[in-house]
Amino acid sequence: MMYSSRRKPVLYFKEERRRCTVYKLFGLCMLLLLASLLWLQLSCSADPSSPPQHDARAPQEQPAPRPCPAAPPAEEDPSWGPHKMALVVPFRERFEELLVFVPFLHAFLNKKKIRHKILVINQVDHYRFNRASLINVGYLESGNDTDYLAMHDVDLLPLNEALDYGFPEDGPFHVASPELHPLYHYKTYVGGILLLTKKHYRMCNGMSNRFWGWGREDDEFYRRLRKAELQLYRPSGITTGSKTFLHLHDPAWRKRDQKRVASQKQEQFKVDPEGGLTNLRYAVESRQELTIGGAPCTVISTKLECDQSQTPWCLLG
Predict the structure, then answer these.
(1) What is the pLDDT of residues 276-289, one digit of tens each?
(2) What pTM did the predictor assign?
(3) Region class of 293: left (phi > 0), else alpha (psi between -120 and 50), else beta
(4) Which of these, 151, 137, 163, 142, lies nearest to 84 by C-alpha position?
(5) Cα–Cα distance between 212 and 126 in angstroms, integer?
(6) DSSP3 helix / strand / coil % (the chain, rounded to 5)
(7) Contacts 24+ apart (CB under 8 A), 219-228
(8) What letter does residue 233 receive in the DSSP assignment?
(9) Cα(256)–Cα(102) distance, integer angstroms
């Protein structure tokens, strides 16, 4: 079942909580006033001539106040639902963005009660950046405890709490849709943030591994979704437009690798009918469990392999 992008306003719940808090404080003050009056009455009615009576028994310790019961962890709270997301972040040398991204998304998803784990797929080889292959690695390394993926750029933060990150049972759900993304507005765009079940990702054979350098891999993936006859969904009822996301990328500081070398210019618009999960070649150098700003994530340092007879543009020069 597709979750609606519409959510109840958060301010409504805050107002209810504030009203309950005022009532509780008023009731507590009344109890303290009654207790003070009762103590004053007992003190005045006591006989001052009678000697004080000493209790031979040992003094009884007052029981410590019970702490408020802690909220059950997500694994035990049924309101979080049965599904768990693998949030896959293709990554290379963008640590400033990562320090902001991980705690922000962790808090955002917790507030929406989305079970998740954040997988940062860190490319450590000497080839050009390959976003699609890193997402393929994230799928294969995500484990059996997750049942859907969020293909998520590290420089894109959701600002509207009504955005849906729930389980996309009916078909792939493009969170960063063209009418909401701050930069890309063409109709076939499926980059930035895309949710889909692991079953649907397997049906597409993942993403093509031929796209070294920046761009075009998500355009090819759009064709895969259509070929697999998967219905694509996008948010409805979101009125924040291009202010729905915060884009952290600074093009003056970090330029994108947009070079097209050798036959890459001709190949970039072609569909890769056989490549994907079935011909991915990689090695995991390390797997580290980190905490960034109190938020847990797993950094999987990965070396991709390149068949230069097939894609000589994986190297520059």
Answers:
(1) 999 999 999 999 99
(2) 0.75
(3) left
(4) 142
(5) 12
(6) 30, 20, 50
(7) 219/188, 219/189, 219/190, 220/132, 220/271, 220/272, 221/132, 221/190, 222/188, 222/189, 222/190, 223/271, 224/271, 224/276, 225/172, 225/190, 228/200, 228/203, 228/204
(8) B
(9) 22
